[in-house]
Amino acid sequence: MTDKSPVRGDKATVRVERVAHGGHCVARHEGRVLFVRHAIPGEVVDVVITGEGAKGRYLRADAVAVVEPSDDRVDPPCAHSGAGKCGGCDWQHVSLEAQRRMKSDVLREQLTRLGGIESINGVPLEESVRVEAVAGDIEGLSWRTRVRYAVDEDGSLGFRRSRSHRVQVIDSCPLVTDAVDSTDVTWRQWQGADEVTVVASSLGDRAVVIDPPGSVPSGAMPGLPEDVVLPGRRGRGWVREFAGGREWRVQADGFWQVHPGAADVLVDAVREALAPRPGEHLLDLYSGVGLFAGCLAADLGPEGRVDAVEFSVLACGDARRNLHDLPQVRIHAAPVESWLAASAAAGPEGVTSVDIVVLDPPRNGAGAGVLDRVMALTPRAVAYVACDPASLGRDIGHMAGAGWTVGSVRGFDLFPMTSHLETVALLLPPR
Ligand SMILES: C[S@@+](CC[C@H](N)C(=O)[O-])C[C@H]1O[C@@H](n2cnc3c(N)ncnc32)[C@H](O)[C@@H]1O
């Protein structure tokens, strides 16, 4: 070890150890931990230090040359992928099979490290938890039905570089569907806008959303194919989706799963985990346009009851319209935290107990306050849908502290070529 700690711009040659959360792999150099992008466990790579992590506890680095490649290394399908380039994909240099192995490793590690979970029903996580491919996946490409492009100072579209505000201008992205690509937005100039979002729905609707609204003057608006709506300027503000055997209305810039196979696979996984029974009472928290509420209402039947809670007024409006044929569903436009608190304070007038719960929070998870109130409703099962395994691990750890156990965990590769994954976990109360 030298007397000088490595700093930004320094070069080194390191052996890459395990994969870590966030698309990095761990390596060590001069006594410091490195979080290395663009590498694969087992490889020897030349790295350049790119910065320091929180409180100086670790360094960040990019692999810039491969000395000993892994058998899992492949040529990236996109020319924009790699160190210093587009920050959209973490793992284009990794075979799809190995990407899923690495995601499985990350999921297990977060469950153990943050959730304290070593096994499920006595089966070690190595055997009981893995990340699955989803139906309709085409070699991990052409799956993005919703894409948010950044706009550079010249009005060109692209994606931000890793940990940077700089935009990597792109012509086309192999992750987007043909329907997104053929809007040709990347060939046009969007001077004035910060972001341009393109949506191509499962029922063939296409929309382009400009942020901030009105930032591109009408005279400078690029021409777009006739069918593409521009909410606020041309056509309606929502698109139609199809999932779970039902049609859904979703605001063009509202939440809907991005991978074409996602909504169905998640509904099936949640249904399998909860095994809803006729007459039961379901609480669907963070319910969006009502996907889980609407699909599971059929299992509960007319004697059942669903309370769906979502804070976006527009999403609740879509949910009411989507579920108008299901009188057993009540939509509540409120933050989950305050709705649960108000319901508890209302005593017998509020919701005092439920049978089953779907929790599908945003990236930072549900958190202790919401989980405590959910557990107080004494459900027989909770299905937790998570897009961040770290938040899931933390929230499972909190419930485990109250005696809850994990009944099953399934990971889904809904974001191929990136390090992201979706998980459905079944949580069961103490007996
Ligand atoms: C991951 S999405 C899930 C939506 C829906 N379950 C689905 O699958 O389509 C999370 C949803 O939670 C909503 N949300 C985020 N924070 C919230 C909060 N504190 N209270 C209520 N809703 C919230 C968002 O608007 C978004 O619709």
Automatic annotation (TrEMBL):
Q: By its UniProt entry, which Pfam families does this protein fall under? A: TRAM (PF01938), tRNA_U5-meth_tr (PF05958)
Please give the Gene Ontology molecular function terms for this protein.
Answer: rRNA (uridine-C5-)-methyltransferase activity
CDD domains, per this entry? AdoMet_MTases
**From its record, what is one biological process in GO terms?**
rRNA base methylation
Tell me the first and last residues of the signal peptide.
none
Classification via Gene3D superfamilies: 2.40.50.1070, Nucleic acid-binding proteins (2.40.50.140), Vaccinia Virus protein VP39 (3.40.50.150)
User: TRAM domain: which residues?
Assistant: 5-65
Keyword Transferase included in the entry's annotation:
yes
Q: Which SUPFAM superfamilies match?
A: Nucleic acid-binding proteins, S-adenosyl-L-methionine-dependent methyltransferases
Keywords of the record, alphabetical order, are: Methyltransferase, S-adenosyl-L-methionine, Transferase
Record-given protein name = Unannotated protein
